[in-house]
Amino acid sequence: MEIKTILAQIDIGTFALPEFQRGYVWNRDQVRKMITSLYKGYPIGSLLVWTTKTDGATVRGDGAVYPGTVKLILDGQQRITSLYGIIRGVPPKFFDGNSTAFTGLYFNLKEQEFEFFSPLKMKDNPFWINVTELMKSGSGVFIGKIYSLPDVQNDIQKYIDRLNQLDRIKDIDLFIQDVVGEDKTIDVVVDIFNNVNSGGTKLSKGDLALAKICGEWSDARNEMKNLLSKWTKAGFVQSNGNSNEPKDYSFTDKNLSPGKYKYRLKQIDFNGNHNYFDLQNEVNIGIPDKFELSQNYPNPFNPITNLEFGISELGFVSLKVYDVLGKEVKTLVLSLIHIS
């Protein structure tokens, strides 16, 4: 089936994504390699779908599902989602992930290379073609622009061929293998899904477990999202980029109300991909029952040291630092402080 036809089937709801599927996890490098293969005419693999009755099928997203039967994508979601985003300019209805992975893809007409938008490199350079704009408007618009450029007449046919070749990616046929039959229950299909997805961008143990759970409990993923949404952003610390030496980072969360807090780190790379790291210790911000000034840490011979104090009622607080001779060095706090 042609790529453009598959995308049209997604739009009308005859192709959908089952609830037990994970979200979109590809990065920009994977997207760029896939579109390069398609441009060069290389194969990118087949799709695996499960044809089942629409009634009772639990799908991702809020898109309409075609009545009667629906084809649920078991393998090929990352490729089809990337192609949909590049060709349509927006993610499909079932999308759940980072859309920057396929946003802003450009094609260099001279070098026949794909890269993501870089203003310094591509701005005002007519030989860098916005792939999504070409897919949406067709190659004819860009052929007209190339004709208007000076000093390209000797190569005009070469550029026209390349623009048409890029546009024809939508017409490429992808083989679709269909899982169908009354014996293909949700349990059987989840096992097929897990087996097929043991390669490529591998599923974590959590992905596999969630797929199995969603097979029995269709709303499990939404319940998890609701729990995860309770996390709030505390702040951002700029990294030092790539380094061969260890780097130390710190963050202070100020003005917290009394209660128990858990923290996690979200590490984001240059491609926009991210990973979460849960911190083991729980922070307990209680209401002090008396005035308390804790020992500073680490010791003051370090460049930075921390001082903590607590008060049990609203009051005026003065916190000063003195040297060993009793001379005042600095006033750290001199204000009205709430219980903290």
Please characterize this protein's 3D structure.
The chain is an alpha+beta fold and 340 residues long. It contains ten helices and 15 strands. The protein has helices at 3-12, 28-40, 77-88, 119-122, 131-137, 139-147, 156-167, 186-196, 205-216, 220-228; strands spanning 15-16, 47-53, 69-75, 105-108, 113-116, 128-130, 176-179, 259-261, 264-268, 274-278, 283-285, 292-293, 309-310, 315-322, 328-337. Strand 4 and strand 5 form a beta hairpin. Helix 3 crosses helix 5 and helix 6 runs antiparallel to helix 7 (156-167). The longest helix has 13 residues, at 28-40. The N and C termini lie far apart (64 Å). The mean pLDDT is 82.
Q: In terms of topology, how is this protein built?
A:
Blueprint: H1 3-12, E1 15-16, H2 28-40, E2 47-53, E3 69-75, H3 77-88, E4 105-108, E5 113-116, H4 119-122, E6 128-130, H5 131-137, H6 139-147, H7 156-167, E7 176-179, H8 186-196, H9 205-216, H10 220-228, E8 259-261, E9 264-268, E10 274-278, E11 283-285, E12 292-293, E13 309-310, E14 315-322, E15 328-337
Parallel strand pairs: 1-3, 2-7
Antiparallel strand pairs: 2-3, 4-5, 4-6, 8-11, 9-10, 12-13, 14-15
Summarize the structure.
With 340 residues, the chain is of the alpha+beta class.
Give a count of the beta strands, DSSP E runs of length 2 or more.
15
Helix content: 25-40%
What is the H/E order?
HEHEEHEEHEHHHEHHHEEEEEEEE
What percent of residues are in strands? 15-25%
What is the first-to-last residue Cα distance? 64 Å
Summed up, the helix count is: 10
How are the strands of the largest sheet arranged?
1-3-2-7
Structural class: alpha+beta
